[in-house]
Task: structure prediction
Amino acid sequence: MELTNNAKRMLKAMRADPERTWDLDAILEATDWSDQAHVAGAGGGLDEAGMVVIAEQRTNLWSLGPEGAAAAESGLLEARVWDWLSAQDEGSRGMRDLQASEAASKQEAGIAVGLLKDVGVPLVNGSFSVPGNTAAIEATIEMRTEFISSLAEEGTLAEADLDGGLLEHFHGRKGLVDSEEHVERTWRLTARGIAIDDEDLEEILHVADITPDLLQGEEWRTADFKPYDVDLPAPTPVGGRAHPMQALIERIRAIFLEMGFSEIEGDFVQSAGWNMDALFIPQDHPAREMQDTFYLDEPESIDLAAERVAQWADVHESGGGTGSTGWGSEFSEETAHKGLLRTHTTVNTIRYLADRPNEPCRVFGIGRVFRKESIDRTHLPEFHQIEGIIMEPEASLPMLVTTLKTFYEKMGYPEVRVRPAYFPYTEPSMEVEVKWRGEWLELGGSGIFRPEVTEPLGCKWPVCAWGMGLERLAMLVLGLDDIRQLYLSDLDWLSRQPIL
Ligand code: PHE
Result:
């Protein structure tokens, strides 16, 4: 068995005088310890290792009880009453006289009768009968008084140092003396303790915590490191921290910033013109219906630059100058002015392009969008999209695919694939899928903006565009099969979420 440093120290100290029987004080002095708990601990270890034997002596220590302390102060009741009696004439030693005196209280007078009888002064016909020879009475009272005062003086005395008869007497009286058991130990080396090699008694540094201080010195080189048990259950610290959705947004933001993108924002309230017409979404597209889009009463209509509306009308009706034939149906300006809650964040990127059609750009935004969905395991009427565009001379479909792959790879999903899809505003269009637990999950749409979208704005270069669901991604990251869990404010669940 490996000895602790304290055990080694105690053993070394004792080996200086191998035959000795050591008491606590001697060990404290030899080891230079001030805490007797060290001796008990180290001694116990040495005992278990068979290197010392411990002898225990149990003694009762006596001290005064509350009544005893009062007696030490103002005299034992029998002493007080005896003094009073000695000063009284024979005719005035009655119980009544005692009660009327200051020698004892009324209550004490009753007790005094028994005590005095016990020392040889019985109550006869209501009067204390004092014998002719009082020497024995006085001797008894004197002995009792001395017993009390010696305890008062010493505080505690071992049973062996006290008169057995008197102790028994006072023990029988209530509250006069108290006792407490005291254990005294002594330690002796065994043959084994004497024979052990000095070398085995080198104290070594046991390290449980690696601290900067420790590493600054040299002692760690020879230290014994307490091994970590990584299987032990440990409490999970629960402190304030960002909501997993917010943490995820920060992570996505960091990735796009790192990839050289700038962040853009936009308003929740938009016109149908910017949210849809600018994106060449036909005005009779089903997604525009009341049951899919939240149209607003306030503002019911939103101001738009007349040239812009005319441009959209032109493109929608006949393709404008874009080479397209447009949708062929009549364009409603009223529809374009309608106020709504944005249904996708593509409205942010298209407006960004409309403001700066000639500046190459790489921008992204993470924002909330609104759709009239019934809430279920995979749908919410409010959710977030991760939107982005790249506009530059060399922008291309491979560049778009690579950008999305890079993003998902940085998020921890290296397996990404794209599949052909359809959006009114991109050509070609792709669906982006990520492999998770062996399954391909659709996370968003992407493509190259159609000429019907970019040409009227004056953009000269191709524009890669994408819009992806943030909550869908969050479900992968957090391993959820119900999207609603993200917004339940379930504190217990929240406290168990990983730090993203
Ligand atoms: N706006 C599309 C959606 O909401 C995604 C998308 C964005 C598709 C950009 C193509 C280009 O699903």
In short: The domain at 5-62+182-225 is CATH 1.10.10.10 (Arc Repressor Mutant, subunit A). The chain has 20 helices and 17 strands. Residues 344, 346, 423, 426, 444-447, 465-467 surround phenylalanine (CB under 6 Å). Residues 266 and 348 are 6 Å apart (CA to CA).
